[in-house]
Specification:
This protein is mainly α and 282 residues long. The protein has two domains: 213 residues, no CATH class; 51 residues, no CATH class. It is built from twelve helices and two strands, in the order ααααααααααβααβ.
Length: 282
């Protein structure tokens, strides 16, 4: 007979803010973080952003959407998948740190293109699925075939980073041991999968913890990813209110304070044109 799920019983619910606080945090992160990503993409007038800027911007956007997903899943009492998506945010955080550390942006982009092109092509070329697939979804962009032919002469060799290695290099090993590694036990099938879900759908069994820790931790991971993203351009000088807002947002996850929302409002007043940063010395 399998026991209850290994989810930590942080039944001292006072350790976490009320769920209304996390709703406010997710609502704030939604516009704040992607706008930081957009500012990172602004280099010189008339110059398109490079691969590094685009990847970083998109990682931030993915974190913002994933964070909304964690909150929605928690409110649907799908707690296990909250941890699953939390792990994906951490995964992108570790990938981002690795890319910054190794400056392997172009290789990563080529490798991803190679993997995705081949995956699409395998489906398109399958006799079993040829008449059933959505042509628009699997259609290549106009330049994709030429890029693929170019890469065939020297296929990109890139390997995904080890989460533990990156967490250690960041000085945040706990994010791997108490975060990523724990959440991994909820990603892959386990013998006690669905026990809490059984209680949720039938009303039998329990009681179970509400696992709001997953929402709290996802908020922290998304904020850390945003801070890491800002390191991609160390020559950029951010408005002091941007930095204060982020620091207060992180503190709010511990204290429940709402100062960061006031600072966000003041930032809009102080920089109505949205100039949140400039080049150091510029």
């Amino acid at each position: 007979m399998t026991g209850k799920t290994a989810t930590p019983k942080s039944a001292d619910r006072e350790s976490f803010a009320p769920v209304s606080h996390y709703r406010e945090f997710v609502t704030w992160y939604g516009p704040f973080a992607p706008y930081v990503g957009m500012r990172l993409c602004i280099t010189e007038p008339g110059i398109d952003p490079g691969i590094k800027q685009v990847i970083t911007r998109n990682f931030i956007a993915r974190a913002a959407v994933a964070l909304r997903g964690v909150l929605a899943l928690w409110e649907a009492r799908d707690y296990q998948d909250c941890w699953v998506i939390y792990r994906t945010i951490l995964d992108r955080l570790f990938h981002l740190h690795h890319l910054i550390r190794t400056e392997s942006w172009q290789l990563f982009d080529d490798w991803c293109f190679w993997q995705q092109y081949n995956a699409r092509n395998a489906i398109r070329s399958s006799a079993d699925f040829k008449e059933k697939i959505d042509p628009a979804f699997f259609r290549d962009a106009p330049d994709d075939k030429a890029r693929m032919e170019s890469l065939k002469t020297n296929p990109p060799k890139w390997e995904r980073p080890f989460a533990e290695v990156e967490a250690r290099d960041m000085g945040l090993l706990f994010l791997y041991r108490q975060g990523y590694d724990f959440a991994s036990t909820l990603v892959h099938p386990m013998a006690n999968d669905g026990q809490q879900d059984y209680t949720t759908v039938t009303g039998f069994g329990g009681p179970w913890p509400d696992q709001v820790a997953a929402v709290n931790n996802a908020c922290l991971a998304a904020l850390l990813l945003l801070q890491e993203a800002m390191k991609t351009d160390p020559g950029r000088r951010w408005h002091p209110l941007v930095l204060r807002c982020m620091e207060q947002a992180r503190e709010s996850l511990r204290s429940g304070a709402r100062d960061y929302l006031v600072t966000f409002f003041l930032l809009g007043k102080a920089s109505p044109e949205g100039r949140w940063c400039d080049r150091a010395g510029g």
